Amino acid sequence: MPRLVAAFVALLASFAPVCRAQTGANVLLIVNAGSQISQEIGEYYQRRRKVPKENLCRIRTVEKETIDRATYEALEGAVRACLDAHPEPQRILYLVTAKGVPLRIEGTAGGKESDAAAVDSELALLYAKRQGDAFAAAGPVNNPFFGQYLLPFDLAKYRFYPTTRLTGYTLSDVRGLIDRSLAARNTGLFVFDLTPGKDGGGDQWMKVAMRALPGDRVKAETTPAVQYDVKNVIGYASWGSNDGQRAADHRRDPSFTWLPGGIATEYVSTDGRTFREPPADWRITTWADKTAYFDGSPQSLTGDFIRQGATGASGHVYEPYLAGTPHPNYLFPAYYGGRNLAESFYLSIPFLSWMNVVVGDPLCSLGKPE
Prior knowledge:
15 strands, six-stranded mixed sheet, 2 domains, four-stranded parallel sheet
């Protein structure tokens, strides 16, 4: 097994130069001209990543997190117009939205055929739509890049734009995220907090990820206890508030010391539901405790990771079901091997046009292991 793991990681690392070669010239930066914070984030990112002026897509839409399908269609049309007007649209590989661009599309039906979605996950389909493809609003679209950890990302082949979001609770949070992405290095611990007894493949995916990473870079909690107070964290996966002990502890913050470039993912249904800042005394709890909900849910929040010092994180605007969450067995080996943040997350997410939101600079890369 160690020899196979070494070969696996070596193959991943062989694609690192391709990812690191991407620059601000490969990003379409989408800001809401009707939102002051969106414009300020856009200006900061454009300067820090040297995004060309023709890659700035200024749309004008409502400054609301939740929108209806008609409002989304108008938003998508504005982004499409930016791509159509770009002098070299084939150069664009990634889309990135700035806080102030709407976050989620409300649905008229629920369940696994829901027509709700994250705005970013829906925008990812724009490449295929510009080629003439059409997609139903209901249900997810299979991600053709999912699990392709041995192949480089090829936009013409996979026909979607990995789309990430520059967001957090405040402008300071987002500027910190951007700064940390530029300082990322391949060092530190990948932390896995398993929850024995949970159904589905969640713990199994974490175990595979642990085996695919160097042993001295892994810290795992395999008992019902919760992993708190870890230093030098570069990656983290857990059940979040779906871990019964974590919910009983009511702790939003696992008290980690994050390294620049650190990313997080949790199997939590609504962790990306909002990026409004909760009251300082709000704590995660259980669904039974309805008096303690924030924005319609008691569950942990992706925005907390950014506030606490992570550089990127995934979340879900509505119920994705466990199968639709990022799979750590693809995410962390890819990120360790040198793929950038956007490709690492989208390689691990099974569906597009679904509930997933990826927070972070798409170009963030750890580079070679130290």
